[in-house]
Design goal:
The complex is a heterodimer. Chain A contains 7 helices and 20 strands. Chain A is an alpha+beta fold. In chain A, a hairpin with a 2-residue loop joins β11 and β12. In chain A, α3 crosses α4. In chain B, the strands form 3 sheets. In chain B, strands 7-6-15-5-12-10 form a 6-stranded antiparallel β-sheet, with no helix packed on it. The N and C termini of chain B lie far apart (77 Å). Classes of the chains: A alpha+beta, B alpha+beta. The interface between A and B is large, with 82 and 81 residues.
Chain lengths: 479, 229
């Protein structure tokens, strides 16, 4: 017992110890470290324009200059030598802002930036400011010129084959040379493509401005028939005189269907405002073109939709068939006054229809008794122009014996003494099987004859079995 | 014998108690000695880098293209930029509130070529003539075209309170000298998380290799730039 307790105690304490060791502040297990990066940001942002904490925004008259600085940061755990250089901006695919490479020739504002240092060595966690001067040439055109101040770790490539990757951080410098400023954005096109679980909508705009504009895009995907759909909005910079496009991912509608994709572009057209300034916040809205798209339903929805469609087709096929059958009954059938002793089976046999049909048309319920003198509808075919008053042929006045017409008779002991108290065989007839069966076209005479010829078979069978009772089953005469 | 075992367990219990004291109690006691704690959190910087699954920087990230055999016809090889062991990370510690872009371009500029070890054999990466199978009107006399499809990649938000909302992956684009010298990989709108860390894997790269290109190992250096916009 002690041994057992001791073992459990030891194991429990061991588990506690491990837990404590894991949770201990001295432990680094289970926590990933981020090795950090090098980069930078504007050293002297303008408190009046929050955007200047992210990018450099300058307004410089031609022939003048301005000073600023970039704060270079080494957030790694090692000493790093960081290159600092300026390049022109370049349009990336889709119209996004990008910076050209150090190897590319400088042709625009990248050449206006003169940095105090080309590279800087910083210890782990250190930062330092590298000053620079931006000078706009005398012939600088009145518009927004963009440059990049790039910070890149100095590293040697050891690449043997394939693609080697280098990384750098760039800070945009938007330099406005004042003059006639134009601000105009025109939405040009919209595309919608279904991709797996998403619908990718690409909205395109064209800038006719000579400055970049922060543009709010509101893209919507609405069903054409019913529902509100979905919309997304975002603000993107549109570079001057460039076409730009943005992708919006919408969740693919489960049921699919016809949708309308559209978008609206909004921007601040106030020419007195510089980048990052909102003024009174009034935006100019321009609606873009819309596009009708068919979105395929998701696979599960497609299966459900196909099943429903099949059911609808079946229904559309059955309803007219039923209507036609009813119309035919109404048109071709005539009234007939029932004589005493007549049964449904008998009349059906004479008029050439199934007894089930006759019962259905005349709304007869089990046990399908006919009241003498009542009027029922019967087909006026096969020469049966049955008048309301007289049947086409004389009917026997005595109760007629029928050997289980088109009915399955349950095997029952029949007491001959009970006579008329015997249950009517039609009570034991199965209910009509289906609408199709009841309203099927009238049966040709030959078919009826063949059907009647087959009748004796079940009757014989039942007769054999009923030897001890009765060979025939009587239908109660109608009173 | 049983007593000895009990004695051993008692010693073990004492050791465990001391461990608990060292692991839990001692730091509390130490903290109580401190009258004032100070902590400085330095502002970070918008940065992009290649890191492994433990977020350690990969010193010289490289990605292989599918092997090709010398062919008398123009052929295409494929590769992927960004894998689980070499993830393309973007960190924005709240310094790019109006959005940012992640773009890729050839390090040596628009005149870059795929080069073999001795720079004796090469082919182009930005010639779109005949889908890169023929030399076009650019300055070099080489054929070859590289297509990058970031939309095929997977973007993951790698922090507790950030998401990939309002960050879109770039469409498939081919380098085209003087027209498309830079390809957008990610585009973060102003509405994206101001403080966030994301990584991208599975960016498709297709390279058209001209017919009869000599068998050799070729390299090309690309630069990924993250820019606050």
């Amino acid at each position: 017992m002690r041994r057992l307790l001791g073992g459990k105690l030891g194991a429990g304490l061991g588990a506690i110890l491990v837990l404590i060791a894991l949770l201990s502040p001295f432990s680094g297990v289970g926590v990933y470290a981020d090795s950090g990066s090098v980069g930078g940001k504007p050293a002297h942002p303008d408190p009046k324009n929050p955007r200047t904490s992210t990018i450099f925004i300058k307004t410089i008259e031609p022939g003048t200059s301005t000073d600023d600085g970039v704060e270079v940061i080494n957030n790694t755990s090692e000493t790093k030598t960081i290159q600092v250089y300026a390049v022109d901006s370049v349009k990336s695919s889709g119209g996004a802002f990008a910076c050209s490479q150090a190897a590319d020739p400088i042709q625009d504002a990248g050449g206006w930036v003169k940095l105090s240092k080309k590279e800087i060595t910083l210890g782990a966690g250190e930062k330092s400011v590298v000053d620079f001067k931006i000078s706009a040439p005398q012939d600088a055109s009145p518009c927004e010129h963009n440059a990049c101040i790039v910070l890149q770790e100095k590293a040697e490539s050891t690449l043997q084959s394939g693609i080697g990757l280098n990384f750098r951080t760039a800070i945009r410098a938007a330099i406005l040379v004042p003059g006639d400023i134009v601000k105009k954005i025109t939405p040009t096109s919209i595309e919608a493509v279904t991709k797996d679980k998403n619908v990718a909508i690409t909205a395109k705009v064209k800038s006719e401005s000579n400055v970049s504009l922060d543009t709010l895009l509101r893209v919507s995907l609405k069903p054409m028939i019913y529902g509100n759909g979905e919309s997304q909005s975002n603000t993107f910079p549109v570079l001057r005189a460039e076409e730009a496009e943005w992708n919006f991912d919408f969740k693919r509608p489960f049921w699919g269907g016809f949708y309308k994709a559209g978008f609206v572009a909004s921007y601040n057209a106030d020419t007195t405002l510089t980048l990052g300034e909102n003024g009174n916040g009034n935006l100019t809205e321009v609606a873009g073109p819309a596009k009708n798209v068919f979105i395929w339903p998701q696979p599960a929805a497609l299966i459900i939709e196909l099943i429903v469609l099949l059911l609808l087709i079946l229904l559309l096929f059955l309803i007219p068939k039923k209507l036609i059958a009813r119309r035919r009954v109404k048109k071709n059938w005539v009234d007939y006054r029932v004589k005493a002793g007549e049964t449904v089976a008998e009349i059906a046999q004479r008029t050439g229809v199934r007894w089930k049909k006759l019962a259905k048309v005349n709304d007869l319920k089990a046990p399908y008794n006919l009241v003498p003198g009542s009027v029922i509808r019967v087909p006026a075919k096969m020469g049966h122009s049955v008048p309301v008053t007289e049947p086409a042929s004389p009917l026997p006045t005595e109760p007629e014996v029928i050997e289980s017409p088109e009915a399955e008779v349950k095997e029952k002991e029949v007491d001959p003494d009970l006579g008329s108290n015997e249950p009517n065989i039609l009570e034991e007839v199965d209910e009509p099987e289906s609408v199709e069966e009841i309203f099927e076209d009238d049966i040709p005479q030959e078919e009826i004859a063949a059907e009647l010829a087959e009748k004796p078979k079940p009757a014989k069978k039942s007769t054999t079995k009923r030897k001890s009772t009765s060979k025939k089953i009587a239908v109660k005469p109608k009173k | 014998m049983a007593k000895n075992r009990l004695g051993t367990k008692a010693v073990l219990g004492v050791v465990l108690f001391l461990a608990i004291a060292v692991g839990v109690v001692l730091p509390i006691v130490k903290a109580s000695d401190t009258t004032q704690l100070s902590q400085t959190i330095n502002g970070g910087t918008l940065a992009a880098d290649t890191k492994d699954a433990s977020r350690n920087t990969v010193a010289s990230p490289s990605f292989s293209m599918g092997a090709a055999t010398l062919s008398f016809d123009c052929q295409t090889t494929s590769g992927t930029i960004g894998s689980n062991s070499q993830r393309i990370y973007v960190n924005n510690p709240g310094v790019a509130n109006a959005g940012w872009t992640l773009t890729i371009a050839a390090t040596s500029g628009a005149s870059t070529l795929w080069q073999n070890g001795g720079s004796t054999q090469n082919y182009d990466f930005n010639d779109t003539t005949t889908s890169g199978c023929a030399d076009g009107a650019d300055a070099d006399s080489k054929a070859g075209r590289m297509t990058i499809d970031a939309s095929a990649g997977t973007l993951i938000a790698d922090c507790a309170s950030c998401s990939t909302s309002n960050i879109t992956k770039g469409s498939s684009s081919a380098f085209d000298q003087g027209v498309t010298d830079s390809i957008t990989i990610l585009n973060a709108a102003a509405g994206s998380d101001d403080v966030g860390r994301w990584y991208l894997t599975g960016v498709n790269v297709d390279q058209t290799v001209p017919a009869e290109q000599a068998a050799d190992s070729y390299t090309v250096n690309l630069t990924v730039t993250v820019t606050a916009s």
